[in-house]
Amino acid sequence: MVHCQQLLGHIKLWTAKHFPNEHKKYAARGFAASSFNDATVICVGRETDRESLTIWHVCDTDIIKKFSQTGPHSIGMWYASMLARVGITLEDQDLITWMNWHGDPERLFTEVIKDFIATTGCGYDPTTKLKRDGRCGCLDWRADLTSTQDLCDIVAATQQVYVYVMHNILCWTKMYVPSNNLILVGSYDFEAVDRQDLKNFYSNIEHYNSLKSLTKTIKVV
Fold first, then answer.
1. What is the pLDDT of residue 210?
2. Alpha-carbon dihedral sign for residues 44, 141, 120, 104
3. 8 A C-beta contact, residue 103 and residue 112
4. Same structural domain, 188 and 122
5. Which residue has the higher pLDDT, 206 or 82?
6. Closest of 217, 220, 197, 192 to residue 206, by C-alpha
7. Which among 14, 18, 140, 175 would be 20 to 30 A from 121, CA to CA?
8. Rounded to two decimals, what is the model's pTM?
């Protein structure tokens, strides 16, 4: 454990010096902490005034940006805002998991898509546009939904929509970024997309919560 902490400390110092761009820095850290020789790196943030989504191809010391999306269209901010709608935060992971488990993802899925999300077309463009400014939040959405089951259904639908958006992004990266390894880096939890159906895209997946801690490698076979 001490060795891992020291390694992360060195990685943070080195990347902060050589990669002043925030997303590039996180992409470099994620790759350096991974077990891969090359990888597709997807960075998702909650920023609404600068880059909110970037996609990189990293091979050895080469870090090449393949795609960038800026705010206010931030899927990370939208995700956090939908959690705030039901009174929880990104840190309430156990509660998020419980509500997702007890919720019906299909009940509100279509309505959430219609009210918030506008993708260009699966596999053709990783851009995700929001129909309302992410800075405005989602506290006023369906104020009539107040029961425990309603709130669980909102969380479940939010997770399902996030998977839908990520699949659109992954279809594009699989076609345009030449790697069989995937690294997800973000300022929130990626459990929503750590599922068996990702084997259709990548064999090896690692995810990091902004390098605050190393998570296990997920090998999909």
1. 53
2. positive
3. no
4. no
5. 82
6. 217
7. 140
8. 0.79
